[in-house]
Amino acid sequence: MIYLLIGIGLLIVLIVIMVIRTILFRQKEQYSEIILSNSKVNKDEVVKKLQDAIKIKTISNSDTSKTNYQEFEKFIIYLKNAFPLIHKHMDLTIINKYSLLYHWKGKDQSKKPGMIMAHIDVVPIEQGTESDWDVPPFSGQLKDGYVYGRGTMDIKIQIITAMQACENLIKQGVVPERDIYLSFGHDEEIGGREGALKIVKHLKKEKITFEFVLDEGGAINSGAIPSVKKTVAFVGVAEKGYSNLEIKITAEGGHASTPPANTSLGFVSKAICKLEKRKMKKKFPLVTRNMISILGKEMNFMNQYIIANLWITKPLFMKVFSKPGTNGEALLRTTIAPTMAKASMEPNVLPQCASFTVNCRILHGDSGSKLIEHISKICKGMDYKINILRMEEPSKVSDENSDFYKMLSGVIKGIYDNTAVIPYLMVAGTDCRKFENISKNVYRFTPYYIPLEDMKRIHGTNERISIKNITNCVRFFETLVKKC
Ligand SMILES: [Zn+2]
């Protein structure tokens, strides 16, 4: 009896401790400063500029022999005509023929410069889907309050609105406090090695380091996390590593009329099935933990109770948060997606060698070598070889308490009412990871509101951006450049 009473007593104490922790957790304040924008945007002017930018087909292709570089040259000329004041007041360095680096001198040379980034290239239209578009994808047509076209969301909006903001400020006679750079690479969609990487090389040679770097990345939306009712602005403070691996498996060849127990293609299938079943171990790195704890403040009491007490509820949280195939799962483990496979060229010839390619996103706390170790275990007993086609480790993590982050957060809240700003881990890649050695504050954010159901338009059919978003982006960049 006495033990039962002690047990009940301890349980009550535990529950009370957990409730107190939850109450303290709820009271922690998020940055509350709101920076209002007083920009007046000429809507028609900037909309027309974005429409014209969409009409220039700056399409990236992994096989660069298929890329039409004349369109990239056209784009540079287009910018010169569309933004005459920028081209009068800023220095332009053209890097590797098609990438652009603008430099605007600020008042205070003792301050480190700031950098705003985007990319000029867009992805192609998937063959056979052209007619699914409501308007031709490179027409830049205006329809129902939206500009349609490839590149509207990803990411010519950022180039055009950031430039329009600077053009407006120059017109008003504003000079920024610190130097401002604009960096637009021309091959982000295929890895950024000819654009952003060369820009960084140039900056390193000039010994320039940055107070902050702001590139494309998270957006603003509601409903992305079911238990959060508020609108959320997702600011990427880090991105997962990126790897493409080709796994080649060799087995007996010969005539298909007398097949062995396993062909090399059979082994490939086995390996893929095993990979899908035996995933890499879940992890809870600091970057995800910080995101969850800030996001938790916007959730209901029950969720807060779990998040405030992760010291005891972590296993439950990991289970609920990381259902297979969800964003939650991608935030908690290294993902491995088999995407391509090759075997025999003929139906009646056994393949001596078959191969498959996986696209992997490496979580903080894991590494390229751990990834290869995992795949090697899966292929144990097979005659296999792993070719590394691309390997980038997880990025550094930028501080969600830096002065720039706080200012960014205030500018977002000034434009988007009642919005929570959340530092998050990007599961996709951007150009700005190449800048992490020349700035410790690297953030990934595009200041537009995209409803969840519209997210699939990025890289997809009927990509479009609302006029409201276009003007909000100009206001955002104007305020940011004035305040930074
Ligand atoms: Zn992009």
What would your notes on this structure say?
It is a single chain. The chain has about 475 residues and is α+β, with helices and mostly antiparallel strands. It folds into two domains: about 45-240 and about 395-484, Zn peptidases (Aminopeptidase), CATH 3.40.630.10; about 240-390, Alpha-Beta Plaits (2-Layer Sandwich). Helix content is about 35%, strand content about 20%. The chain contains 14 helices and 17 strands. The strands form four sheets. Strands 1, 2, 3, 6, 7, 8, 15 and 16 form an eight-stranded mixed beta sheet that branches. Helix 2 (about 45-55) crosses helix 5 (about 150-170). The longest helix is centred in the N-terminal third of the chain and has 26 residues, at about 1-25. The protein is globular, with a radius of gyration of 25 Å. The N and C termini lie far apart (about 65 Å). The mean pLDDT is about 95. The site of zinc ion (ZN) has 5 residues, from helix 5.
Radius of gyration: 25 Å
Query: How many structural units, i.e. domains?
Result: 2
Shape: globular
How many strands?
17
Query: Can you give the helix content as a percent range?
Result: 25-40%
CATH architecture of the largest domain: 3-Layer(aba) Sandwich
What value does the average pLDDT take? 93
Low-confidence stretches: none
**How far apart are the termini?**
66 Å
The main pleated sheet reads as: 8 strands, mixed
* CATH topology-level name of the largest domain: Aminopeptidase
CATH class bucket of the largest domain: Alpha Beta
Output the CATH homologous superfamily of the largest domain: Zn peptidases
The oligomeric status of these chains comes to single chain
Total of DSSP H or I helical runs spanning 4+ residues: 14
The unique ligands bound to this protein are: zinc ion
- Class based on secondary structure composition and strand pairing: alpha+beta
The fraction of residues assigned to DSSP E strands is 15-25%
